[in-house]
Amino acid sequence: xxxxxxxxxxxxxxxxxxxxxxISGVNLKVERGEYISITGESGSGKSTLINxxxxxxxxxxxTYRLMGLQTETLSASxxxxxxxxxxxxxxxxxxxxxxxxxxxxxELALTFAGTEPRYRREMAERALCEVGLSQRLWHxxxxxxxxxxxxxxxxxAIVRRPPLLLADEPTGNLDARAARxxxxxxxxxxxxxxxxxxxxxxxxxxxxAGRRLRVIGGRLEAL
Length: 223
Prior knowledge:
single chain; alpha/beta; Rossmann fold; 6-stranded mixed β-sheet; globular
């Protein structure tokens, strides 16, 4: 699914002295269906790494293959198509539109992906039922708890059935109970064959994964 070889990323240029890479010499293989977690201190390079994994940024050097395709050779539109077809994103902030119901928020992902209108409602409702929100289909974000809002965001991420889910601090804005519920949902998705890369500060959440890694000073190390 994922293969990084000697990937480094350096931002900007400085004439007097070279900048320190945000990540350096990262090598990583993730098999289809694997569930891994990546931890690290703030500023360690986690955000840079997940941006590259999500095809939101390109490495300065090294290669990144996603489902066998070398991403450095793809155009901007090619990267956009790769994200649409392959990757679901879950963030710390839920990024839900307050004026829309849960179903309508999930439908947005299908609208942007070009899914035919006649299929959108059924697909959105099914995804929300899968994350345990069958009783909250028509609630707006302000009428739901933080955990329910994050479940809605996860439904939006998985509604297109992407083979890869990238989760960046998905429990960061949740209380302990809601966080446990979200991690239980991730276990369920993993058991169903979804490949999951979890970026987190939460060591308890990280321990849920089948393989744990840590970013230290821009380098990726196994735990």
